[in-house]
Amino acid sequence: MLRHCLSALLGSLLALPSLAGPPYVTDDPVPTEEGHFETYLFNAGARGHDGWGGSAGIDFNYGGARDLQLTAALPLEWEAPTGGARQLGVGNIEFAAKYRFLHQADAGFDMAVFPRVFLPAPSKSVGERHPSLLLPLWIGRSGETWGSFGGAGCTLHRGGDAKDFCQLGLVVTRQLTQAVQLGAELYHHTADTRGGDPSTGVGLGLTVDLNEHLHLMVSAGPGLRAPATTDHAVWYAALQLTY
To answer: What are the residues whose beta carbons fall under 8 Å from the beta carbon of 242, sequence distance 6 or more?
Structure first.
């Protein structure tokens, strides 16, 4: 049960978009700049009603062309169910492509699609043993001080007790200084298992530019809905290298 409760959330956390997206569950529509790289060393997790779970790994993004970001993520997942043995293994490897088809300069906002494929986990102890596909649409608008982004998408997630589910979220950010950005997030996803409950959460995020190429990103927040059967709290932290 813990594996199913965490799979959708961790899948969202692993899909780390460029610029404003991390450290939030919700993505933004802005791709990595053409010809540039963004690499994330991340740790993400959640505390549920029946234990803890999380993942750590590397997420690689490359600006393959104008308005096109190519993404690959390799997670090492762990689970610590209450009263059970801890499990550790390679999770669901991800491949994705973000394409921005509307620009703020022309339309007043940015808009992008970001389809993501999750491969079956090679480990027998963690992750899902079937593939899944997320099909989202993200929209955003940014200014010198304030910004916002959000959107929604659905995941084809069939296998075992899993079922298709949808998610949506909204983030508002404020640039406190040239190097520090603070944000607040509200997100929701429908039940991802048969007989499961939908989940709603909020979070606060912080991004600090340590220097031109190194950035620290953290976020955390509680679950708001059905605490007896869904996540009580989630967290995320990463070092981002840009070059």
So the answer is: 36, 37, 38, 212, 213, 215
Reference 198, options 172, 221, 158, 168; nearest CA is 168
Q: Vertex 93, ends 116 and 167: CA angle to 5°?
A: 40
107: left (phi over 0), alpha (psi -120 to 50) or beta: alpha
Q: Which residues of the chain have pLDDT under 70?
A: 1-21, 225-231
Residues 42/238, Cβ–Cβ less than 8 Å: yes
Average pLDDT, the chain: 88
Q: What are the tokens at 63?
A: 């600006």
Residue written as token pair 């997630």:
157
Position 8 scores a pLDDT of 42
| Model-wide pTM > 0.85 | yes
Q: Hey, which residues does 151 pair with through a beta bridge?
A: 138, 169
Tell me how far apart the alpha carbons of residues 120 and 132 are, in angstroms, rounded to a whole number.
8
Joined together, the tokens standing for residue 153 give: 């998408």
Peptide bond into 23 cis (omega under 30): yes
